[in-house]
Fold each of these.
Amino acid sequence: MEREVVDMGQRTQTRGETGGFDARGWLQGWLGEDALWVEVSSAPTLVAHTARSLLGARVFVLEPRGPVNAMYTEWDRAPSAHALEHLLQRMAAEAPGAMAYLVGWCRHASEVVVGTAIQGDGSGRVWRGTPRDLQPDQSTLLASPPTWTDVSRETPAGRIRAAAMNAWTVLGRSDLTRRFLREVGGHLREIEKSMTWSEGGQGEAHGHCRRQGEDEPGRSDDGLRHRHALELVSRLLLLLFLQERGALGEHPELLRSWLLESGVDQLWRRRWVPLCRALAGLGDDRPARLATLPVLGGALFDPGTLVDVPVDVPDEPLRRLFLDLLGRYRFTAREAGDGRCIDPEMLGQVFEAWMERPDRSRDGAFYTPPGLVDQLVVEALARHLRLPGAEPSVEGLRAWLAATPDALREVIGRENAAWLARRILALRIVDPACGSGAFLVSAAAWCGRLLWLAAQAAGDALDDGEPTPRSEAHAISMVLRDVVHGVDRSATASTLCTLRLWLLLVSRTGPGERLPGLPNLDHRIRQGNALWSPAAAAAAEHVPLPDALVAQWKDVQRRWGLARGEARTRIVAERRALARALHDHRWSALLRRDRARLDQLRRSAECPGLFGEHPGPSAGVRHRIAAIETAIEEAEHRRHCWSDERDLPFDAAVDFADVLASGGFDLVLGNPPWVRLSAIEPHERALVLDLYPWMRGRDESGRPAGRPGNRSAFGVQADLSVAFVQRALQWLRPGGTLAYVIPAKLLRAPYGAALREGLVRRTDLVQIEDLSRTGQGLFHASVYPAILMADRRRPRARVNEPAVKRTVRLHGLRAPARLVHPEDLGLDGAPSDPWPLLGRQEMQALRALQAAAPPLSRSLPVRMGIKTGANALFLDPAPPLSECRPVLRGRDRDGVPASRLLFAHDPVTGDPLALPSAEAMAWLEPHAARLRRRADSRPDTPIWSVFRVSPELLGHRVVWADIGPTLCPHVLEPVRAGGPLVLNTLYGVGAPDPRRARRWAAWLASAPIQLLLQARAEPALGGHFRFQAHAVGSVPFPPVLLGDDVRTPSWVISLDQAVDDGAPGAAIDAIVLDALALAAAPHRLLVHLGERRAGERIGWP
């Protein structure tokens, strides 16, 4: 066998790259620089022969192979997954360690292939696709190279074995998860359809709809069916995990023998309901076989939620559900199991999997990768779980979590351990959009672990009336009872969140250890909207509550956490009465205030004038009186509507009154919804804009954010995550920490100006990390995330106390971590300006560049292209029409139009024609009703009209696509001369002649301007940017570029000459930099950065 030793760094001619992912570099990162690969040029073994004939390319094996048979290959066209699985299984059969691992790169399809097999364990497992195709649970397949600490992984062979095992687990988990969710989802739908209502059940459904603030009673039936079906499946899943842990008694097959006993019908009433009542501790007449069941507690087994409501489920769908879950799957209570059993982490994907896509778009809910969740939670906890006087240390916290009680006692001492345990129990953590509970599960796990360690280390020093946790599971139970809180508008999500928190408790219960009672979590994990309550007007948000009522509420909430059986039933009534009293106080205070304002206005209107006349109220006063009268009527109506309801809807001021009255939460963490205002209901939109001024681009006092020249209207484009950040700061106590995954565009978008300014003025920023590139492939959806961590600023102890100069840790797109002052984040020097997350030198260079000339928008209006409102009718119509003209779209390459547009407008003025051709009318008239419903249409708008037709974009013009890796300007001929139209996926500026159009295009394409644009524009998919009007309109543009006479400066003439001669980009860059007359330091830096461009890609290091 001839062998060629290959250096992986030099071997591959084709760079295996897709969307920024380098397959060759990734594999080398796993193996280390000491890995040697050997090319198999002959075929002494059957596997090698099969590999070469199948792959049809150079095949490399790891040398030495060690405990695994590893291959790397590249090919033009990848073989089928079945063929690769067969090859992997044969490789595993020949491997000394009975394992095989394959990494491949397909040039033709730009695909990565990762495959693995274990001898005797079925066929191989293969994943193929681009990194963007990864599902969240597969993200570790192509994760960044780890830092190896295990001795067994210090060799390339050991690392390959670790990678193979990782791939085996990940791919197996992925297959199992998809199958499980598909089948259980089918059972859910079947139960929903078959569920029947007993007498009064329909009224219960409508009552539930009103309590959740829904305005469409017709949807309540389906919604309640889904909720009950989900609760049924959730209960069964929890019981299966409990049975796996031996927590349901000594009988290992109790559920199967009870639920699937032959000859038993009416499974719902004769089997399921008695089982739930026994687990809830209700009734003395439980069957003998259920007599030894533990009383689990927890709202999931509250008979009022499912057992006692007037519904019934036929036997057949129930039996099929029981058979599938009890007979086909194995369960493990460990988070992230071995890929062969259903584990709690798999259920974390249920929320997204079971949501329909329209709901996901409406709610803006996306799965968050577990690694990112843990990173954010630990870093946030480190800011609060530190010894007095010490600095926050993530490394220190992780070391404590990995220690034993004795080791922890030795490091920090008994007294500090006792302080740490009390501090954990005093923490209050909330996720305002908790989804399936990923952040809360992580926080509860870390807090519970450290609480148990600290309590054991403290020993007798922990003696303040709080029981010492006897195990890690008991510590987690204490954390669940008091520390973690969550809200989600979806009943599905809040139920799954509660389930996962209970499963965490079960997973931490050791073999032979008695399971702690499941704490009631329905007072901590609430269904509702964290931004507002359906029963509360905006004005009622800030009504204070009486101390006596808050103290009673706090006591009831604490007792409720561990209430069982009949005691739980008694506390239910007490909680409802207190909640109603708190709500009533808020409404009463609101009504008293509004009536006092109304009386004052009326009395002032009746006062005589200077000469004793009675002119009556002015128009403005009459308007204010009418508005207050309307508000009073609405408040009284709402108060009456909610007075008869059994359960009041979620209201943070009531449900979290015990926390907010004590100053607020210590940590607000999570991944809030990313959804545009335009995607939510109009009445909700109005309420959000009223409650959260940052959504309107204003601060809390109503003052517009940013400098007057930088303000821009953004309408309904604002993202709802802005409101969640502002809400989080309202819930935080002074010194509390906000830790959010937010859209990266908030760091630069105009509608994020108020948020950026508010964060600098009201918080001490801790960390900002842009993950818009490194995070791709980790999320299900195409999202561009960033990490935001900030502490709510404490008030100064003295009026003249000097402000502390703080720094924030930044992680830019392509830059290492760095520290800057928050006041230096803004690109133009103001906090509301875009935050490019660059270092001090780069920011100074950009600011000098920005200040070198007035912005382009002062000289030239930036216009968006044509909007049709009905592309299917106007783009490439089927019949040949004389009005059709070539049209350029953002996705067209090299400025060459690939489509035609029905354009019945004047090609110079842009005005609609009086009447198009008969053929055009025959094409459009059948769709007249649809055309009149277009958003931009008015009653007098002709149906053949298109919108935003700007005369500037009909003559000579410079246009560019709205999205791209760099701004790529194109010079177009006038439309009357045959030049193309431009659609609304392009922007542009009009020019008086082709010479100036080419001049302006060269200016915009120069490296300095491109660097500034990439620092200012919003990020988009695949390392692209959004070059919208506000971004391009802000670039420096000397007014002399407009001129074309003898007074034109010499550098403008040189620029024109360079353009006409086709000079290289470096020559034009030099002219632009000289024209801007920058200081020496920023000039050198911009020259250096401009020279570092890769091909046509310009970017910051």
Note: Residues 565-606 form the longest helix (42 residues).
Amino acid sequence: MPHLAVNGPRPSWIHLILLLVVCVVSAAAQRSTSTPDNNTSTSSTLPVPRKVTTTEASAAGKGKECWLSADSSYRDQLSLLLNTRNAKLVEVTVNLPGHPPYQLRDSLPHVYRPNLWIRSTSRQGRSLLMLDETYDLKSLTTLAIGVEKLEVNLTDHPIRCLRKFEDREEETLRIVRSSFLRDFADPNQNTRGSLSPDEHICSKHVEDDGGYAHFVYRCCRFDQDGEIVCLDVIEDNWIKVLLTLIIIIKVLVVLYSPMFLPETLYRIKYVAAQYLYHLPGPAMTLKVVVSEDPDQYGPQAKHKCVRLEELKNMEVFKTMVASSNWQTEKIYEVKVKDVRLSVKARRLLSKFTVPVSIKSILYNNLIRCRIRKLEPLKDCCNSNILGRFNPGIKMIKWHHCMKWFAGLCLMVLISTPWILRIYGYFTFEDITRDRQVEAAERLGLEIKYPGSIVLYLSPVHGLFIFIYIIFIIDSLVYGVLSKAMKEKFKHVARDCLRDMRERSRIAVVAWMTKLLVLPFTVFGVLGFLLFVPYLILLAVVTLPVAAFYIFPTLNLSIRLLINLFIFLCPDKLMNKCRSWHGKFSSVRERFSMHDVTANESFIQKHSYTRGGVLLQLVVILMLVVILMVLISFWSVTLMLMEIVTFFVELLVYTFMGVIVNAGTILQYVTVLFLLFMYSKNTFSRVANLYQAYHGVIHRELLGLIKEEIDEVAKQEATDQENTAFIVQGESSSNTPKDVRPRIKIKENQPQWSTQGMLVFLDKYDTPYTPEKFFFETIDLNYFGCPGPIYTNVLAALWEFLKIVLFLLFIFIVVMAFGDAYQVSTTNQLLATVVGGFVPFLFRYIFVSDAGVGDIDTKSIQFITEFHRIINSYKQAWGVFDIVPVSYKEWDYKDDDVDAFDDTSPVDGNGNRSNFGPSNNVTGGGINGDPSDSISPLLDSTRNGQDGEFSRLEVGGDPGGLLSIRSSGMGGSTVISIDDSYPDVDIIVDVSTSKTRRFNALQSKGFEKGSTSMLDRTGHNPPIFKPSNPNIYV
């Protein structure tokens, strides 16, 4: 028995990078909130003092020529912001009434925004100047706490004296700075203003950095000698590290963008797995006919007709019907003992998995529209959207409309991150970008690349418009593609993604390490002499290979290009490529390329390029699709890089704001944390309730077939196959007399409909049960069952709402009394935490926890109900392949339609058939003539394309198609349609436009079996050759 390896969640690179980002943000925030140093010239925030512009006395003397005064309310407003609101940064917007609107802009061209001046009151305030100008957006306004805005009207004295200094920028700048430092007081009063030694007046300047505009804040203050000292604000080292990490995240997103795609969409273990189902008892008999004209079997033939060229997988079955021994228009008996089922992983549940999480409930009920099965909504969802006023057009049900609406909502949900990114750009970043471009153009400079393509180009740039058009074309092309073409495209895309994901990167690193030490393995110590040239040669060979296998974006792109090359490459060039591949075999052996390229395969050209103009058009269409997929993939990668970077910056800035303003924000964060904890706990109790019950049901199911499972589980994992077992309940009155499966055809694919439960066991001995069975057992007529999911979810939601109301009450009380009695923020935080844990105490200490009790599985009621639901359980599974034991032509000459007895074999639809063994028909198989059978059969493990099978709603028998009768006189036969006699199980359609005959009279409902079933050419169909007209009587 193989050991089951339990793989826990592995930390990805994004988790490690984000953890490092959090550490850096914490260090940067703590540095900015540390105790300020009075000697700001040695501060890391303001490290470089500018030259002394002038002394206070000389400034006063020159200020008599021109100085500025503010409104009388300016000092009062400023005092209110600094003393009462404890502002750490005051943004002052100045206006100059009586002057042109752009007076300051024309006089101060090197100032980024001449009308905006900032008063910084602490080092924490100055640290905000190091950040991006849109820090309030990116921090979700957490960093904007303590940042106040003030607007003031200024008057120059003497009147309009500023116009004298329009051509002298430094003089104008000195006048504005000195006026701000004096709080716009009269210079004749010799006042120094209200600035403390750590307060500064700052403005943003534009400097020439090699032809590019460099924006930097310049902060000024009076020193002890009365001199105005200006300092440039430069980035802190921790901020530089943080920005470097963000750049690394961008690069990693580009290189690993395919890893964001859910692996459940393409990996084999999630898409579909093959399970071997061995039929108990004697071999099952299927009647199969290959027809070039399936229309002759009547309008009900569509229920049992499959198109051979559209049949997925089924390699053994297709080989059987395509063999030279198989003749068209003849019915064959096929003996079957083994069937390979194709089962999606989402339709199975392990012991530790239940679909009761909030995500599963929303996805299943809204996206997959399972809510339509609820009793109050069942009738409405299955009714027509026009109701009784339908004029006779095709009926469209409400649940179909809801599925389309859910798909549209899902597309909007997927697009929401990009919509938020565009909203942030046009709301904040676009304005800032325009200002920077305008300031740079005034000085004839260019703007540096800001680190974001959206910010550099804008979302309405031609590049992004091209991407939007590509997405629209993708949607239209995918909508008009045929189903077969979609399947081919999915097959190519899934193969590329699967090979990209399942290739071991550790094996690539091991291969490179092996080659790196090769000189020392061969030459010993002398390998040091050859190591440098060998290393250069090794880098040329290994680095491209390593990049291909280590970086998923390159891997997927190159795989798509290789498939595109296979489509376009002529046969002669393909042959040359194969010959070159053979010539380099020795080089591949030297470099042990087999260690990394083992089992590497690409799509073969002959699988897609066959003769015929139509097929060549199909190939051209596939080329267009692959090219569009490649372009779309890189477009999505570009947008994904912008989205991830944007949200990482939101996380970083918000976390920094929480740390910097912990006293104000932690109360809100604590309440949000308590809400998250209670919501997760409340709904987890529902999941745990069903998890415990599912464990009991799972254990009882395995107990019914313990011997069969143990017999298969004894094998090694390399020899053991995924296996399906039938389970029957014996302690119930509804035990079916016949549990033989039935063949159903839906969407041109065979479906294996079973009466009873199937339990699945993979080759690693992990048992699975159907998801549908879980939903049918949760509401058994037994007191220990948890009941329908929606009832428990609604009860949990009601309980959570009561907790929300209680927490809201606690928060309002703490905030109200805290402000009234001036309680410190620390004590308010403690009061909020203590009050928030009251529901926790009531739930786990004062009230006992309700859960699934000990279910008495030995109870007669439980056993009866449990076995009843097992026996009544029906479900259809996709068929991966049918493995026949033998086949022979059906001899109907001796059949008597009335000669039914209990010894008649059972056909594929579970009906008693009247045919039996015939002496004049040679049977195929082990003891029969090999010429009449598949002997030997192809290996049943041959793989085909991965198929996806839609769920079949098992209903009643659709009715029979054919009744084959013998006249008993001369062996003349006729095959007529008889609803009560379903003989043929599978009709394999191999017709073409020339061989298919459409009978218009039959489609109008004429009497079945009448002579009016002749085709329009006047010739009898091949299978209708009655010699005795009385056979129809």
Note: The chain has a mean pLDDT of 75.
Amino acid sequence: MILHNCAFRLLLIFSIFLGYCFSVNPVSNEYNCLVNLVENFNLLKFTKDNSTGGYINICSTTDIVCYGNYISKLVLNGGGSENILSPSNFSDCFPMMTELVVNNLKVSPDFIYYKYSNTQTIRYSNITGIVGGITQPLPPYRVIQIFSNDFKDTTFRMEFINKQTYSLDFQNGPYLYLNSDGANLDRASILANFNIYAHNLVDLSNYKSFSTVQLLFSSTFNYSTTPHIKTITTNQLIIYDDINPGTIDIDQFLFDDTRINYFSLASKLKSPSQYIDMASFKNHTYSTFSLYPGPLFHINGSIPLIPPKNLQLSFFSGNLTVFPNNLQLSQYVTTNFQNSIKTSQFPKFLGSGGSYDFRGSSYTGTIDESWCTTEIAISPGNLTGEIPSCYACYFNVTSIKSYSKLTAKSMAQRFYGNNFSNYNIKSCTTFRPRVELINDGVFNKVMVTGNDIGFDVSLWMINSTIQLNSTTYVINENGKNYTATMVGDSVNLKDVEYFSVLFTIPNNVLYTFPSNYNIPPILKSVLVKSSGNQIQVSGTHFSSYLEFTSQQIQIVNVGNCSTITSSDFFGAQCTMEGGKLLSTSNSTVPLYIITIDKDSFNVKAYIKIEANFNNDQVCPNDCSTSVGVNSICDLSSGTCKCLPGFFGNDCLGIECKAPGCFGNSYCNTTIGQCVCNSSSQGSNCSLPFIQCPIYNTLPCNGGSNTCNNQTGVCNCGPSNQGDDCSLPVIECDPSDCNSNGVCDRIKGQCICKEYVWAGPTCLIPYHYITSVIPSTTKGGVASFIGFFGDIHNNLSITIGNLPCLILHNSSSIINCTAPAGVGNKIVIVIQNNITYSYDKYQYINLNNQTCPNKCSNQGTCNTTIGQCKCNNGFNGVDCSGVINTGGVNGGGGSNSDGDKGGNGNPTTDTGVDPGSGNTTITNQEINFQIFFKSLYEIDINGNIVESYSLQNSWTSNSTSGENETVYTLSQTIRNNCTIVSKIEEITNRNGKEFTFADTTFNLQYGSIKFSIGIYNYKYKNNLNTLKLELVSSVDQSISDNNECNKKETSLDTINNLDGESTFNYIKISKNNKILEGRFINKLISDGKATYLLTSMKPESKDSISIS
């Protein structure tokens, strides 16, 4: 076996030797080609054998690399030849050449465009003979490095770059004009590295494979092209613009909308007029920004940049006189100000950030501890005093493993070259760690907090062997709080009570920590020392006194053991306050209680005080302290002293708190609760238990449904309903029925608000008519005004059961062609499967309107307006009234009192009661009364849904003029609805003409006109209507013996139901006194005239109700 191993190794070594040390010259063909090149072009660095005249050691030169017997890399260094190198010089030569380097030679114009078969890399430096620069596509080399002064100020068209070229480097210039027209339109180029000296920038958005772009700007660079920086997608962009005169704004280079990871800019920038807030950039990808800005780039000595929180910023060789100590940066980034800060005083730290490099400037003063939340490098300088312990404690660490990118990895090196007094720190007394196990179900993470815990989590070892990952840890607060993961796939601290951590640096100390900080100290023994004033307590979960928890030991009624001489996780030793000696236990006081307070925990035990006596007897089940404070353990005897409410040798039994468990129930001493039988419940089983309905063998169908066992009623969950919760809830869509109805969750159907909304989702409104413009009796266009919505499925209208052809319809009006007809008709409008009827359609009779009672044959009928012109001696709407012959009134007059009885007629008095709204007309002993009694809201079925009494609620105002007296009454009912009534007495002897609702009429002298307006009434349903009730009555105030005054009251009505007149009439007669009334069968609704229906009925033998 040994011989075989040796043979194998020797064979391996021999094979390697054969592969790389075969010869110093190539094969003869390549040798001859090379000799021709050397001699024709005076190439340097080739050695000639004077004895043979040949060249030797070719493959061992620094410019030739051979593979086998063939040249793989060829470097041609011109020595001053005027001969022109062309592709023909390589004909049938160097078939295995992968790299060609040509320096300082004249070449033919086609030389740079030629592709050598296996060559992947070409490097042409200081070549001449390239007339007019690059004028045609370059060959498909992977790497091209080229320099020729012949390119100076020519235009380089990027479309000449072959798509297989990975790297293109215009080494050392000269400066070119760039043109990207037509370049890489298919975006197939693999160009990753691009280095060029440029007079301008162009659109490079078609190149998506850039890794590094390096641009060197000329002194005549066209800065108007710098916005093309936004078209560059690259990992690194490096711009050198340091030959400009210092008049360039940083805005020429720094843009929000960029796709650049690392950006390095060297440019002499002028001072900006305002701070550049990079933190406000929203669409950039900057992660690192390195800036060499020159001496002018500052604002009054301050850094003029507001960097984003996560930006790695380097500000080199600047001229800042205001120390940048207030930047708000991430704890994971490094910020570099080398050779940029010109102020000498080193201030306090007011900002945030992972690490800062302040080297290259000489500072004075001291380092404040405020810097302990970041890593710093600050050498050399003239700083004095002590280095803060957060740094000095770690001078023994040669390489800090943190997220910092400071080049000085040794903590000590970061501070060398100053005049600090504590370079040689011996021990770290300020180190105070606290470790908490993260309970995330995996238990492989810890959170380390404390004072002077450093910046390197790899210095801590869990249980002395388990490392923490220094590449994935989380910085909660740099230098003070970290979360780190243990190294190892299966490593965790699950199910451990406590664990230790070895802090190798600064003090190489081992501390123990609990896995759960919510556990009180576990006391196992108490030893009274022989001195009589010292106590040693032992157990677990005590305080290590690292300033994170407070701990106090006391003996009840004796004193505090306040001087802690030593303490750790497993116990503590203390001395009684003031050195007080403990009294020995005796028959009077056999035991004392010792208490240990740790944070919010309080632990007690009985002990016997006797010198060198160790109270270490174990109590049964620790007296159940794991489930609560049930008792106190007597450590001197190992017995439990139960607290009230507990019993048993370990005090685990719990007495039931309820006063007795009623009936057949019993006390469960494990939980201290009564266990009731099947018919009772409650804390003491005194309440009855009623079973709820069972479905599928489960009360209330189980699931999320609950049963109230005191009432036996199910409380169903959101998806069930019914007495036993067995019915599913079927939600409507939408569930709220668009707020226009309620959902029947048994059927899953919307029940819409009646007569308001319809449709499956309650989005179709009920339509209604508010006013009508009717046709004539011959038919024609009729207009219906109201609300008809925006949906008109299957719209149809009938008038008196005859169809009305639709001409136009919208949400507010419908026009149709009405059939011929007379009188009042019912209109039916049907759409969206909703039927609406309207009973106030009155045909317009333009031909012959009839007069009431044909004017009683005592007058002439005006058939145009349907009013009588009475003959002399007669009056009234139907000329049935006989004028007192003793008077002097002309024909058609009235029995008024305008002449104060001078014509022989009795005087008529008119009065209005402003409170009740009653209008009284008195002639001798006869009193006629007229008043508005009530207002009703009527639903579509004719039912009264709201009623308002109009009597005794009026306020009044009256005005009088030469020709009229007007009483205005008003009152307010529900929701600011105003009702205004006007009562006008005609005092002009010639009468007065009125127009209302497109109807013109005359009132005679002595007449009284009533009108009423109802404003802002809010219907309970849009389909409802209003009904107004007016009462007219007559009575006799006194009796006399005149036979003419003993006639009964006569009530007569003329109701115009056939539409042959514009008016309806009433006539009330008593004792030859006649009160006549006309009612216009129109009203104005929402500003439009429409017809109304009037009904009249006697209320008594002396009164009539009109509505």
Note: Residues 766-842 form a domain with the Immunoglobulin-like fold (CATH 2.60.40.10).
